[in-house]
Amino acid sequence: MGSFRLGLLRVALYAAALVVATLIESTWTARLALLGGRPDLVLVLVVALALHRGPELGAAVGLAGGLLQDLVGGQSLGLMAGPKLVVGFLLGLMTRTLYVENVLTPVALLAAATFANGFLELGLGALTGYAPPPWEDAAPTVAVAACYNGVVAPLVFAWVRRAERWFQRAAGTG
């Protein structure tokens, strides 16, 4: 299979995964809210792809996924996209310095990314006039979201790892 076709297939696969994650998040995970926190499947996918493919893809997927969340959620455009872009880019910079095959490393990074994303969203919400929850209520909400994301992370990371290995084999480099 040609590299152009593989590239298009990779983009289509990850775009479909973002759409599915956004739809699941906006419909089913709303019922899992505990102390205001709930899983952020798009963030889990952003972190997984950033750690496997680097800062450029991490930032692009973060921006696209965040914009999808903004559109589906009905809040100000960029409120979810900006923080996910930053988190995707920064975690993508760590791809060469971390061993992501260990299951605990992605879970720990995802917890840190959830806290960073949550507080960046609150900061942007405060700057734009969007009504964020009080700052003192934010820590438990983000902590619950980090726990939920940590539970989902191994499944998403395994799926991304399997997809990337398939793309490498199809390209003849793996």
Explain this structure to me?
The chain is mainly α. It has six helices and no strands. The mean pLDDT is 86.
Question: Secondary-structure blueprint of this entry?
Answer:
Blueprint: H1 3-27, H2 41-53, H3 55-73, H4 81-92, H5 104-128, H6 135-171
Low-pLDDT runs of 5+ residues are none
Backbone CA Rg: 16 Å
Overall residue-averaged pLDDT value: 86
Assembly state of the chains shown: single chain
Molecular shape: globular
Residues in β-strands, percent: under 5%
- Give the terminus-to-terminus CA distance: 14 Å
Q: How many strands in all?
A: 0
Helix content class:
over 70%
Largest sheet: none
Number of helices: 6
* SSE ordering: HHHHHH
Secondary-structure content class: mainly alpha
Briefly say what this structure is.
The chain is mainly alpha-helical and 174 residues long.
Essential attributes:
single chain; globular; 174 residues
